[in-house]
């Protein structure tokens, strides 16, 4: 976009970035203004972002970020994280249920949650909207089946938006259903899968969708996903739901509450999960 010329030392220029359509990123923020001030006989440009001067040193105007202590090692939860599973039976019982709010039949095996065939989904008691989620998972070392029948599970934000879990190491399936796909909606940029039985990581930055009073989506969800430290979903705007709607269709958005549980899928394969923590993000 071509910038307008500076009109005078007192003039403020407000840059408009266009209207916001449903599902698009809000480009009206931040509001950027500029002015020219005379200092020691010279014109000095000043920029303000949402009313705050660039490089503002006055902490009453531009407070410093709060201190967060990072984890002691890669993947360890930072000090402001909500730890949903730390490898113990106690953590499992305190933080997880089945989808009916009852005790789950999943097992804790060697410090990991292991899905049990026909036990159903598992979900967190705590609910979240926009968040950062870290979760580690491993498909069975004993390889059985192929395609969608091999090491299949899923990680669901708000209980419904799925990042696919699948043994995608030398295992071909449709691209929008392999590991780290937004199921049925977005193919990962690359296949960063490790071998069966090896621990893998998802680091997910999720921004929740928003709806108006009529139940229409006014702001779509976005996903950024790193699989084993590799960027695989780059601030993807989710075009609709990720639920199964037949072999060649996915569900659409349906209005829901501002927060929902973290959930994992029982797809008949004994997939394991560990080191699960969440940081809530402001919308």
Question: What does the secondary structure layout of this molecule look like, with pairings?
Answer:
Elements: E1 13-14, E2 32-39, E3 42-49, E4 52-53, E5 82-85, H1 89-95, E6 96-98, E7 107-109, E8 112-114, E9 122-128, E10 131-138, E11 153-157, E12 161-165, E13 200-207, E14 210-211, E15 217-219, E16 222-227, E17 230-237, E18 260-264, E19 272-280
Antiparallel strand pairs: 1-2, 2-3, 3-4, 5-19, 6-9, 7-8, 8-19, 9-18, 10-13, 10-19, 11-12, 11-18, 13-16, 14-15, 16-17
What percentage of the residues does DSSP assign to strands (E)?
A: 25-35%
CATH topology grouping of the largest domain = Jelly Rolls
Q: Give the tally of structural domains.
A: 2
Order of helices and strands: EEEEEHEEEEEEEEEEEEEE
pLDDT averaged residue by residue: 90
Distance between the termini: 27 Å
Tally of DSSP β-strands: 19
Biggest pleated-sheet summary: 8 strands, antiparallel
The tally of helices reads: 1
Low-confidence stretches: 1-23
Provide the CATH top-level class of the largest domain: Mainly Beta
What coarse outline follows from CA principal-axis ratios? Answer: elongated
Structural class by SSE content: mainly beta
Q: Under the CATH scheme, which architecture of the largest domain would be assigned?
A: Sandwich
CATH superfamily grouping of the largest domain = Exo-inulinase, domain 1
The proportion of residues forming helix, as a percent range, comes to under 10%
Rg result: 23 Å
Walk me through what this model shows.
With about 280 residues, the chain is an all-beta fold. It folds into 2 domains: about 1-65, no CATH class; about 80-280, Jelly Rolls (Sandwich). The protein contains 1 helix and 19 strands. It has one helix at about 90-95, and strands spanning about 15, 30-40, 40-50, 50-55, 80-85, 95-100, 105-110, 110-115, 120-130, 130-140, 155, 160-165, 200-205, 210, 215-220, 220-225, 230-235, 260-265, 270-280. Strands 5, 7, 8, 10, 13, 16, 17 and 19 form an 8-stranded antiparallel β-sheet that branches. Strands 6-9-18-11-12 form a 5-stranded antiparallel β-sheet. The protein has a 4-stranded antiparallel β-sheet with strand order 1-2-3-4, with no helix packed on it. Strand 16 (about 220-225) and strand 17 (about 230-235) form a beta hairpin. The relative contact order is 0.18. Mean pLDDT is about 90; it is low at about 1-25.
């Amino acid at each position: 976009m071509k910038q307008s010329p500076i009109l005078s030392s007192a003039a403020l220029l407000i840059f408009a970035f266009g209207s916001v359509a449903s599902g698009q990123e809000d480009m009206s923020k931040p509001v950027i203004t500029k002015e020219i001030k005379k200092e020691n006989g010279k014109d000095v440009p000043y920029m303000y972002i949402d009313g705050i001067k660039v490089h503002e040193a006055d902490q009453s105007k531009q407070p410093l970020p709060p201190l967060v202590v990072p984890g002691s090692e890669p993947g360890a939860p930072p000090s402001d994280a909500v730890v949903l599973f730390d490898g113990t039976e106690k953590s499992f019982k305190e933080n997880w249920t089945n989808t009916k709010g009852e005790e789950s039949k999943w097992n804790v095996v060697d410090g990991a949650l292991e899905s049990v065939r026909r036990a159903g989904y598992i979900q967190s008691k705590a609910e979240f909207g926009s968040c950062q989620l870290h979760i580690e998972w491993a498909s069975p070392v004993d390889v059985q089946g192929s395609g969608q029948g091999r090491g299949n599970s899923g990680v669901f934000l708000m209980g419904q938006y799925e990042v696919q879990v699948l043994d995608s190491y030398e295992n071909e399936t449709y691209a929008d259903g392999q590991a780290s796909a937004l199921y049925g909606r977005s193919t990962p940029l690359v296949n960063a899968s490790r071998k069966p039985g090896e621990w893998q990581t998802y680091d997910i930055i999720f921004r929740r969708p928003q709806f108006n009073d009529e139940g229409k989506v006014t702001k779509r969800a976005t996903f950024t996903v790193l699989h084993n430290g590799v960027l695989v979903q780059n601030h993807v705007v989710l075009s609709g739901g990720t639920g199964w709607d037949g072999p060649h269709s996915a569900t659409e958005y349906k209005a829901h509450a501002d927060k929902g549980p973290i959930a994992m899928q029982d797809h008949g394969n004994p997939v394991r999960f560990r080191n699960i923590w969440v940081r809530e993000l402001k919308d």
